[in-house]
């Protein structure tokens, strides 16, 4: 069941109505049934995986709670980790490892054919696996107390707003909320609905519209000149942001209507002035997960420099592999790891150069340059993320920096737009929507969107709501299924 579907348009109001009609001590039952129904709408049998993971993690955490020392708790931690990672590896990575081994054997002249593993990747397995793993690790470390109520723990694992694509919630934040009495609050419900509408705008008006051009060009990159490839890459950067942040907004808004608070997952990432800042703004729930459960346990930055660089690089390499079973994702993660290591290595030189050139006297211009440079580095990374293979990615990067001289010629500009496969009208609609989105981002940064709306007269405010709804209905791109990009992860 997709958020941007008629099924969800019926499902969610019914769940919300029943939620507030039920006694507070019975609401977890409704949430559990609704969450499993939501997930089973894709493939019913994969609900068994969530149930199995839930039972194992509940058992392990319950047993750990009775053991005072870490050494005694360790076997249950390993049971939980082995089960969760085992399922993730089998369904997501085993086929990739077998194909890679087969390719390596062929390159060495060995006559070995890798077996074909034909299993369908369960939707959202990486997200709920990481959520439950963080729970058992926190219980092991004594950071959180284990949840004794099996039903409430099952809701925590399968909570439908953020089940299939995050935000990846921590037990210490989300679990206690299921024991609170969530009272109906009109202002909170209105705030949640506004956020859901904003997420839908980003998804169906922008992301799904420009996806046509991105898929068209990236499907056959060798058929297009550099300017088309460069613009398609820029469009993909906007597509993946609007798609994933749109999902996060809908998830957070959906939970807010019911009275639950989920963590912020995006904070205008393309306004970042460094790669380090980018990762403090992009997919925050995942970047903080890797920081807390991979980077810091490896030693973080509290070690010798070479080890610090190693910790950073390995963390991002694993992050790339988390995103998908393909060498392009590994390259993308490795590239961001290299970016961060080089930024640390050259930071003293950069500071001396900035002082020598007097750049500290023009902070705004320097900031804009840093933002532009960061965007360029991120765009190069997105090429690997989106390309079908490493060869295509390298071709796109090489070609994107050539052949730009004549694209202001009217005839070539027309051919340029046609090459995107989107059409001038659709491109104009997407362009206007992107400009509007950035205007909202500026308002959010300065005043906060909700505060800005609250200051408007009631007539103007409801005019904005009406215009947003009309835009979603009239300009939403509802063709092609509209599945969210991060569902594949």
Poorly predicted runs are none
Strand content: under 5%
Tell me how many strands there are.
0
* Tally of discrete structural domains: 3
Quickly count the helices: 20
How would the global form be characterised?
Answer: globular
Give the CA-CA distance, first to last residue. Answer: 16 Å
Radius of gyration: 24 Å
User: How much helical structure, as a percent, in the residues?
Assistant: over 70%
Give a quick set of tags describing it.
71% helix, 3 domains, mainly alpha, 489 residues, single chain
Could you characterize what this model shows?
It is a single chain. The protein has 489 residues and is mainly alpha-helical. The protein folds into 3 domains: 6-179, no CATH class; 196-225 and 240-265 and 417-488, no CATH class; 269-386, no CATH class. 71% of the residues lie in helices and 0% in strands. The radius of gyration is 24 Å and the shape is globular. The chain starts with 5 loop residues before the first helix and ends in a 14-residue tail after the last helix.
Short description, anyone?
By secondary structure, the protein is mainly α. The chain folds into three domains: 174 residues, no CATH class; 128 residues, no CATH class; 118 residues, no CATH class.
